[in-house]
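for the recovery benchmark. tokens below, seq after
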């Protein structure tokens, strides 16, 4: 890479991803210029790549993908005092507008006018350089790697979902989906006190279910296309020793939501985390008559500090979730692997791997 060159992974349309040069922006008074070190590939990035977006967030112009990132502060805005040039930071890619009613009551994560990366109006940060609000950059302790810093974003998603359903010590937790977010939810649920956990996903991603078991799930269930709901509910309750107290549904699929409702105890709590089908048919009479609390979670809400703390303290270990490493020049292959579910967390290194890790043997 030439000095000060800013290469970015830019999506022009479904399956039209290009690596091209973009101008390097200068930080505003409350921003910093970051040299991005590591960027993980998320399911929403894959939705953009394969389908041109998801829900209301359909592509209206070329955008830079990526939002699970860590980087190095290279330039400070005039009013930034809590960071310095050279700091290693994790990047919270969702910021509110700071002035609307939602932001004023603390719901910046669903602000209609915020800077959420990437969306149809805002670029992501799979690029060599990226300007961002300084208060959305969290300094990494020396013992946290840049890869772990990039994974704080999906971990924050999981922490927020766990908080939404109030996971407590001794809870039995069902997690539907063994993708990166589902596995992060497993890690977060156990950190919050869940003692029995079961993870479900399709049999074709058995490698992810195997990883869930290694991460400490009490049990895993591989779903086949001819499995009956009643049988799956029975298997779940057998592993948990009864109905689930809390459920984190990470697929957005109709079967996942239906089985989640049917597997939850009376007055239990379900959080819908995954983005999937637009319209679903659910057993709502069952849910209402048993007073099951169904909530949703979008992104996170001031959960990065907790994510930094539990990783830095060694309370959780995210390193086993990483399955692949790619250089930026190989970003097309990185997205191919991610879109085919061949691994788990796919890392794109925009700076040679380990350049900015304090412990070169940390990974």
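predicted aa per position
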């Amino acid at each position: 890479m030439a000095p000060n060159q800013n290469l970015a992974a830019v999506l022009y349309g479904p399956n039209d991803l290009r690596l091209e040069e973009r101008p390097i922006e200068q930080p505003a008074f409350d921003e910093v210029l970051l040299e991005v070190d590591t960027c993980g590939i998320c399911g929403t990035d894959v939705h953009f790549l394969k389908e041109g977006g998801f829900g209301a967030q359909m592509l209206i112009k070329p955008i830079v993908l990526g939002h699970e990132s860590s980087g190095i502060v290279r330039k400070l805005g005039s009013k930034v005092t809590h960071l310095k040039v050279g700091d290693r930071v994790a990047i919270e890619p969702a910021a509110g507008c700071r002035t609307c009613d939602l932001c004023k009551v603390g719901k910046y994560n669903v602000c209609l006018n915020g800077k959420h990366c990437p969306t149809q109006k805002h670029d992501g940060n799979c690029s060599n350089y990226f300007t961002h609000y300084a208060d959305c950059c969290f300094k990494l302790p020396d013992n946290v790697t840049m890869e772990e810093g990039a994974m704080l974003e999906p971990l924050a998603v999981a922490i927020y979902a766990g908080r939404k359903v109030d996971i407590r010590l001794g809870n039995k937790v069902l997690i539907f989906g063994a993708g990166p977010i589902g596995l992060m939810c497993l890690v977060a649920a156990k950190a919050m006190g869940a003692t029995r956990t079961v993870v479900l996903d399709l049999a074709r991603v058995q490698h992810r279910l195997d990883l869930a078991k290694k991460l400490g799930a009490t049990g895993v269930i591989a779903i086949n296309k001819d499995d009956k709901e009643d049988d799956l509910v029975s298997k779940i309750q057998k592993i948990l020793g009864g109905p689930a107290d809390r459920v984190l549904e990470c697929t957005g699929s109709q079967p996942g939501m239906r089985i989640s409702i049917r597997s939850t105890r009376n007055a239990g709590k379900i959080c819908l985390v995954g983005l999937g089908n637009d319209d679903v048919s659910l057993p709502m009479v069952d849910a209402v008559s048993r007073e099951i609390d169904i909530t949703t979670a979008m992104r996170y809400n001031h959960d990065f500090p907790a994510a930094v703390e539990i990783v830095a303290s060694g309370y959780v270990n995210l390193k086993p979730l990483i399955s692949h490493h790619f250089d930026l020049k190989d970003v097309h292959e990185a997205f191919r692997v991610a879109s085919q579910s061949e691994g788990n967390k796919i890392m794109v290194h925009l700076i040679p791997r380990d350049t900015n890790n304090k412990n070169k043997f940390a990974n």
